[in-house]
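Cross-check.
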Amino acid sequence: MRSVRAEKVAEAVARLYREAACSPDPGLEAALAAGRAREESPAGRAVLNDLIENLRLARQTGAPPCQDTGTAVVFLELGQDLRIEGGDLLEAVDEGVRRAVREGYLRPSIVADPLRRENTGDNTPAVLHLEIVPGDRLKLAVAAKGAGSENMSALKILTPAAGEEEIIEFAAAVVEKAGASACPPVIVGIGIGGNFETAPLLAKKAITLPLGERHPDPFYAALEEKAIERINRTGVGPGGLGGRFTCLDCHVLAAPCHIASLPLAVNLDCCLPRHQTATL
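Predicted model, tokenized:
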């Protein structure tokens, strides 16, 4: 039985959240530049120029490229042969978020109650998803998820007879309805299967995958490519100002489901995909 101290978890979460908030996906600038090269809209090209310049300034100053440093979404894969000692695992995650907000001067955006709206002041509690897996390691994936794109996400329960076309058209409709609100060009996470709560979680995990990474199953990799092509035909464009480059990337995750159901969720991420991973 291997052990990891809770303090090490807190340190890792603090580092990953700060890095996620301040350092978007390393492939982002190249993806934006590639989109600019094929964007025909002058307004769209201007938006992409601004986004690339914003990334340059963020690297130069060490500041977040967006003021909405988001909800801290933490995925933990806890090895069944690993023991957390010296503290509570869940509290260690929240302590890491507190430190990141305090030390990194990140914007506190979480309210303790959804209706009374009092800010917690430190972005806690984190949104935590815990999975028990084989082994004796702890894998952490931390995302800084902004509200603009999150607010535009959607869930739909399709009939089992629905196919690829219905899935792709639903994803395109979600992006088109979002317009400028999701800060395009967007990353589109599509979760298929499971049940009512599973599909959105799959979609959320999907947007934490690296830009340009395709699904290992050729069937779903092809579905991702078809969705990207269709979403780019919506004409939403960079910044919602019109153009051909609306979708930075699309990732699909799927799970088994009931014979009478086909859950589908689309989770959008903005033009600044912010997530970091580590293993303890």
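Helices lie at 6-22, 28-38, 42-61, 89-104, 147-150, 164-178, 198-206, 218-232. The chain has a mean pLDDT of 96. Passed to J.P. for a second look.
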